């Protein structure tokens, strides 16, 4: 299955839970999966990071790896500089992912924040790592108002670097979606020029791992190893009279 880079249109929008869901769906089909977090920021030594959390939710057959950890909740380049630590360069991310890919069926590289957040003083980004890997980029987006512009900009930035978005996943679908969220089911694919490949219900990261693993395939489209149907979901949640 190779390598998939998971990026978001911003921070705190559900990248880790989406990464865990994709990992769980692959593991349920008997695949071995590695989750790679190039730069974990905002956590001290010993605290569980995003890669470990994704592996915990996704369960057996999934491992989590970090390349670097910086204590302050900042962009990786800034956090590394302020901590007096060496940053992570895109070529290091690509090399680590390629090594994991030789040992696993699927490697999921989860970025920090958005696509163009700087990893190092030279301006290296997750997009650069994806380009070096030749890997597709799965874009995680919020459901509601404001997401269309950010998603379109992310897709445009990918294509400007000769990268194609694999698709869009809504990272936290609300229990009571408002009109903007419901309209965005149709508008997100148009804005990004890429398919909508899933919607993870809000609060899913709080599920017990067993419940998370059982439900994860239902949140993802077949392209990501699940059974989610975008048309059926839109029929249930899309705005009346669209």
Automatic annotation (TrEMBL):
In this chain, ATP is annotated as bound at 12-17, 50, 110-113, 171-172, 201-203
Q: What is its main location?
A: cytoplasm
Residues engaged in binding substrate = 41
Pathway, per UniProt? Cofactor biosynthesis; biotin biosynthesis; biotin from 7,8-diaminononanoate: step 1/2
Q: Which UniProt keywords apply?
A: ATP-binding, Biotin biosynthesis, Cytoplasm, Ligase, Magnesium, Metal-binding, Nucleotide-binding
UniProt KW DNA repair keyword: no
Enzyme group, top EC level?
A: ligase
Q: Which GO terms describe its biological process?
A: biotin biosynthetic process
On assembly, the entry states: Homodimer.
Q: What role does this protein play?
A: Catalyzes a mechanistically unusual reaction, the ATP-dependent insertion of CO2 between the N7 and N8 nitrogen atoms of 7,8-diaminopelargonic acid (DAPA, also called 7,8-diammoniononanoate) to form a ureido ring.
Q: Which family is this sequence assigned to?
A: Belongs to the dethiobiotin synthetase family.
Q: What's the name of the protein?
A: ATP-dependent dethiobiotin synthetase BioD
């Amino acid at each position: 299955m190779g390598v998939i880079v998971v990026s978001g249109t911003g921070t705190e929008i559900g990248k880790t839970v989406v990464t865990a869901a994709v990992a769980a769906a692959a593991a349920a089909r008997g695949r071995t999966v590695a989750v790679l977090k190039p730069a974990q920021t905002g956590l001290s030594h010993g605290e569980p990071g995003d890669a470990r959390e994704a592996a915990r939710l996704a369960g057996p057959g999934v491992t989590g790896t970090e390349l670097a950890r910086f204590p302050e909740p900042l962009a990786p380049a800034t956090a590394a500089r302020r901590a007096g630590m060496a940053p992570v360069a895109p070529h290091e991310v690509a090399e680590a992912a390629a090594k994991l890919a030789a040992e696993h069926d699927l490697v999921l590289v989860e970025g920090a924040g958005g696509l163009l957040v700087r990893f190092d003083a030279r301006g290296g980004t997750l997009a650069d790592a994806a380009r070096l890997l030749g890997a597709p980029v799965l874009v995680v987006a919020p459901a509601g108002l404001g997401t269309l512009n950010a998603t379109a900009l992310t897709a445009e930035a990918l294509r400007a670097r000769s990268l194609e978005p694999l698709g869009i996943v809504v990272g936290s679908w609300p229990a009571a979606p408002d009109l903007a969220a419901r309209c965005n089911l149709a508008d997100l694919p148009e804005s990004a020029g890429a398919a909508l490949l899933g919607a993870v219900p809000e609060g899913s990261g709080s599920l017990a791992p067993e419940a998370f693993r059982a439900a994860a395939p239902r949140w993802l489209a077949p392209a990501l190893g699940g059974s989610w149907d975008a048309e059926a979901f839109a029929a249930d949640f899309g705005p009346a009279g669209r």
